[in-house]
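Team,

Forwarding the record for the chain on the shared tracking sheet. I've put the sequence and predicted structure together so nobody has to dig through attachments.
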Amino acid sequence: MSEPRIIWTMPTRGDGRGGPARGWDAPPPLPPTVRDGRAGGPAFTPFDYLHQVSRAAELGGLGGVYVPYDPHGEESLVVSGSVGRDSRFLEVVAGFPAGVATPVYAAKLSATLQRAFGGRFAWRLEVELDERVQRAQGDFVTGADRYARAAEFLTAARAVWHGRDVDFTGRFYEVVKGGFTGPLAGLPFPTVYLSGTSDEALALSAEHADVHVFDLAPDDELDRHVARLGGRVRLALQTTVHTREEESELSGSAGLRGTYEEVADQLLAYRERGFDTFFLAAEPRLEEVLRIAQHVRPLLAGRA
């Protein structure tokens, strides 16, 4: 059995601590050399902290990083571009809503990132955003139409990515003579991660996803949802994690919880059930990714 892949969740709006170095609530002021247009800048910014987190994940042998979409945080595609170019082996999973751009523009932007990353860029398309968030962004597609649009988005994006002189006509998008040539052609399409447990969400994944991401839930509930996918996509699990060397060091928290050995056992048990990828998160992000990399991942590698 292969080693479970851990994808670490990046912070885009702080990670539970304030201050200019690791929080987003009090960013460092720009020095005069920046305000008047000359070279210079803050000694340490939130992006430097993001790079520390992604470097720790990479040096620790984790499979990738996930930059979630947050309407009030840093733009996930920009953060993905920054940390992806700063790494060499990590898969970079960018979360973004289906209504953020046309499928052609999203594909073009992603093709450039694929070139920059050497094929390590992935999509996690957000479909069921809070309707208030959607409206604040000028997006008024609601209900089941959100899934119909997401299906069109992925269909049109793949068509222009792999083809030339592509014509596409749908309810939400239309493309005439589209497609990529030159340096944007011939690249691997981003791995597509989707999530959700509604009938519409599972049907969308069955047709368009490479990996379906489930939130941690009771075993019988997970098994029921997994069975509805019919083995048509790979499975991933998303959860928080709280782990320490000794049980006495643990405090109450949801998600995966236990000593290093116990958390490794839990991950391997889910791997036995078909979940090969785990989206994990804990705060503070830097210290906790180091803990997972140094103590949990070696156990996974040894037992796999």
